[in-house]
Amino acid sequence: MDPIEALKEIAFWLERDLAPSFKVKAFRRAAEAIGQMAPDDVAARARDGRLRRVAGIGDRTLEVIRQAVDGDVPEYLAVLRERAEAEPRARGGLVTLLRGDLHSHSDFSDGGSPPEEMAHAAQWLGREYLALTDHSPSLTIANGLSAERLEGQLGLVEEINAGLGDGLRLLTGIEVDILEDGSLDQRPDLLARLDVVVASVHSKLRSESGPMTRRMLAAIEDPHTDVLGHCTGRLVQGSRGTRPESVFDAARVFAACAENGVAVEINSRPERQDPPDRLIQAALDAGCLFSIDSDAHAPGQLDFPRLGAARAEANGVPAERIVTTWPLERLLEWTGRRRG
Question: Are the C-beta atoms of 238 and 271 separated by less than 8 Å?
């Protein structure tokens, strides 16, 4: 087995299972360290122990490399694979119908990996499409994209797609902030060029219901909006602590989503689990579409939609109302419906 691929796959599974970041980084650092060497040199140094003296190589990563160059699947990787294969998704269900993901971040904003690495991880997972939706300018804490940086990213996405071959399309997109007046935080002409626009509230989350409802309705009615992202903004666990739900008139907001064909995101991040079940039910009753998304900020997190799919299935959301089960051609027809 290729030792670089083994190290990267271990990092993926650890990241996906929410292991501490230092463990994930150790395997990625090791992959980078041997990536500059010839394969025969890696094998020789691994077998005689010299590789341990290379910066970025530790005892566990050396063991993985040794087993890989000897032609074996490293034991540590085998354990992680077995753990994943034992999960319910192996028995079918809604998760097996997911084709794509409309919400992910790269190191262009607050993600930890370049777009190419995110695209290759999505391709490895069997996704048919992945939208690259880095943040917009007003979210400075997340290094939001100026118009100029977003335009540069569009060219990069085109280059990445040219090198991906069959099996995955990286879609242009943005997670655009819904500003206090309900406008979207990017130039309309640029939003019109994107494949996917996820609109989310990231500021003044404790606003009263009236202003928050008006803010959300204005964004939903904007013809560029495709997906309403993590609608309550809540945090239920994790290193950032907890945060209560934003308050808004759910009946009006979901009615507007249904009327405008805007999908309500089922955000799959474990710390968000947004919207809560009662609001999934309210959106379902209102006739809304849904988008099960990872909101991934790293490659291993691209497998989070398995968690969102489980919540959607538990709430009885039909697959045909989930846009991320649709084939690419149908999805792009939908996102282009109001661009005109």
Answer: yes
Phi, psi of 121 (to 5 degrees): -65, -40
pLDDT at 3: 97
pLDDT computed for residue 92 by the predictor: 67
Tell me the helices (H) and strands (E) count for the chain, helix number first.
13, 7
Tokens of 88: 């319910």
**Closest C-alpha among 291, 286, 290 to residue 253:** 286
The answer to whether the peptide bond before residue 275 is cis (omega within 30 degrees of 0) is yes
Q: Which homologous superfamily is 93-335 in?
A: Metal-dependent hydrolases (3.20.20.140)
Question: What pLDDT is stored for residue 90 in this prediction?
Answer: 46
Give the DSSP letter string of 236-285.
-SSTT--BPPP---HHHHHHHHHHHTPEEEEE--TTT-BS-HHHHHHHHH
Residue 85 pLDDT: 85
Calpha distance 284→325 (Å, rounded): 16
Measure the CA–CA gap between 275 and 229, rounded to whole angstroms. 9
Kindly write down the DSSP assignment for every residue of 27-86, as one continuous string: HHHHHHHHHTS-HHHHHHHHHHSGGGGSTT--HHHHHHHHHHHTTS--HHHHHHHHHHHT
CA 208 – CA 137 distance, rounded (Å): 25
How high is the pLDDT of residue 86?
82
Taking the CB of residue 268, how many other CB atoms lie within 10 A of it? Answer: 27
> Closest Cα partner for 176 from 147, 201, 211?
201
Whole-number Å distance between alpha carbons of 44 and 69: 9
**pTM of this prediction exceeds 0.85:** yes
| Element spanning 90, H or E | none
DSSP 222: S
Q: What residue ranges do the domains of the chain occupy?
A: 3-85, 93-335
What percentage of the chain has pLDDT greater than the value 90? 94
